[in-house]
Amino acid sequence: MKSLSIFFPCYNDKGTIGTLVLDAKRVAEKLTNDFEIIVIDDGSTDGSRDLLMDLKLKGEIPQFKLVLHEKNRGYGGALRSGFGAATKELVFYTDGDGQYDVSELPRLWNKLTDDVDIVNGYKIKRADPLHRVIVGWLYQHAMRWAFWMPIKDPDCDFRLIRRKVFDVVELKSDTGTITIELVKKIQNAGFRFAEVGVSHYFRIYGTSQFFNFKRVFLTLWRLAFLWVELMLFSTKYKK
């Protein structure tokens, strides 16, 4: 039976992260008896850290591990910590804000056949305000075209990946551009993708860290450099 690491990047997700950990335990127990659940607290200031430390101290979930960033390292930094902390054969992650449903992990699990290395979710319908839906649609299609993406929704952070991928692929981004870096480097390494539709829900706690002019501009700036690196100077990895 395959072993499983589940991790959540968390930044000011106090209203959702505890429930996600409990849901992850229930789901993991149905899939395997060898699993771990990891939360990367990326310098939260809303009480998320206290909640998570209390959960850890209670010891009611022995598979629960907590990684603490004393300073915020950005979304990419949190994901890199999560991939580094994961020890099991398969690694699943999704965001700590609860916009994806962990109970849909079996959809990915069932798609991970012997000839597939990563199963990527795609949003069946995006549950966001209209302006975010429009921007998200434009971003998704622009990234697929610019980076020749092998999947339809590279911005969907609901992924199940074989741990061996990270013996080959090294990630460097500290920001949200890590999702593009991740997918493209896995593609360049010759690993094989599958996709499955997943639900997407309105955010019930906190606010998005992305949708402001300064952050969008910086993201586009970083993506330009990433495109040069991955599309012009990238070399194929050897698995």
Give a structural overview.
The chain is built from 7 helices and 7 strands. 37% of the residues are buried. Helix content is 40%, strand content 18%. The chain is globular, with a radius of gyration of 17 Å. α1 packs parallel to α2 (48-58). β2 (35-42), α2 and β3 form a beta-alpha-beta unit. The protein has one domain (4-232): Spore Coat Polysaccharide Biosynthesis Protein SpsA, Chain A, CATH 3.90.550. The longest helix has 20 residues, at 213-232. A 7-stranded mixed beta sheet has the order 3-2-1-4-6-5-7, with helices on both faces. It is an alpha/beta fold and 239 residues long. InterPro entries: Glyco_trans_2-like, Glycosyltransferase_2, Nucleotide-diphossugar_trans.
